[in-house]
Amino acid sequence: MKKTLAAINRILSEELQTTVYTKSVESGLKLPASFLFLDSITVIPLLKNKRIKRLNMRIVYLEENPDTFRLLRVADFLGDKLRMLDLKDGRYRRTMLFENNIVEGVEGKKDLEILVSYDVVFDEELDAEKVEELTQKFLLKM
Amino acid sequence: MEIDQTELQKYIQALKRLNDGTLKREFASWTAEEGERIRAKVAKRTPTVSGQMKKSWRLSPLRSESRTFSVTIYNTARSEKTEKYPEGAPYPKFFERGHRIVNKSGQTVGYKDGYFILKKSAEEARRSMKRKSKKRIKELIKKELKH
Fold first, then answer.
1. Is the pLDDT of residue A9 over 60?
2. Cβ–Cβ contacts within 10 Å for residue A12, how many?
3. What is the model's pLDDT at position A139?
4. Residue A119 pairs with which residues in a beta bridge?
5. Which residues, at least 6 apart from B10, have a Cβ–Cβ distance to it below 8 Å?
6. What digits encode the pLDDT tens for the residues B50-85?
7. CA-based, 20 to 30 A from B21: which of A26, B13, B90, B126?
8. Cα(A107)–Cα(A112) distance, integer angstroms
């Protein structure tokens, strides 16, 4: 799961060249910025201790004065990168959901909101600590 | 070999009677009832500063479209009137989904994540309605079989 998040982080910071945040920022925001929120983790039981953990994530992309065309181009770029996520260790992870919305925010400024989710097969006993660590690190909304 | 179909026929007749309108009436009343319950839940979950948003949750009248019933929960709270928002800013929308924090000159200085009160409540409602409907339909069939 950490690798999935790290890969998304890399795409947002290196390839899209934005500052990545995982929590709300009250002041001093550097634009363009991306917010990566881990909304929830859905558990689907598999055999024995194995579980599928579905990571439901939300990415918010902000620019100072973006227009719809620019946001659509960013959405297209992220769509290409996130649909088949390169973990950089020879593995790829396919997204189970990719949805993008352009929403009108405060002062009529448009924001890009992307919903993505990935399935990770997980061993309940072996990886319990890792999940706990991850839920503490991110602002988990469950 | 003979098969006694009396019970099966009774069951079919009960389902037919239910399908005549009882089920539709029941679904309509369940939807309205559940809508009101969710509205109250959403209002309870809303954090308060002035309390305006908390008391502005509304429930639309029941809508029926062929075999679907629906209600909408919405918020009518608006901020003070400004030049950009002559009727007041629809801030519950920003509160729900997250919003930029802008300074007086209109520059973005931060971002506040949303509370997703409606989204969470809708997901809960979907789960609970599925569970409750199954139980209620079973009860209706049982009741109809006794007639």
1. yes
2. 24
3. 55
4. A54
5. B145
6. 888 888 888 899 888 877 888 899 988 887 787 777
7. B126
8. 15
Q: How confident is the model at residue A138 (pLDDT cuts 50, 70, 90)?
A: low
DSSP string over chain A: -HHHHHHHHHIIIIIS--EEESS-BSS-PPSSEEEEEEEEEEEEE-STTEEEEEEEEEEEEE-SS--HHHHHHHHHHHHHHHHEEE-SSS-EEEEEEEEEEEEE-GGG-EEEEEEEEEEEEEETTTTHHHHHHHHHHTT---
Assigned token pair, A53? 């953990």
pLDDT digits (tens, 9 = 90+) for A80-131: 888 888 888 888 888 888 888 888 877 778 888 889 888 888 777 666 666 6
- Beta strands at A33-45 and A19-21: parallel, antiparallel or unpaired: parallel
The candidate with the shortest Cα–Cα distance to A63, out of B100, B61, B87, is: B100
- A46 close contact with B: CB closer than 8 A: no
| B120 neighbourhood in chain A, CB within 8 Å | 141
pLDDT given at position A134: 67
Residue B89 CB contacts under 8 Å (≥ 6 apart), including other chains: A106, B78, B79, B82
Of B94, B98, B109, the CB nearest to A29: B109
User: CB–CB of A29 and B111 under 8 A?
Assistant: yes
Helix (H) or strand (E) holding B110: strand B108-113
Band of residue A142 on the pLDDT scale cut at 50, 70, 90: very low
A37 at the B interface (CB within 8 A)? yes
Distance (Å, rounded) from C-alpha B94 to C-alpha B48? 15
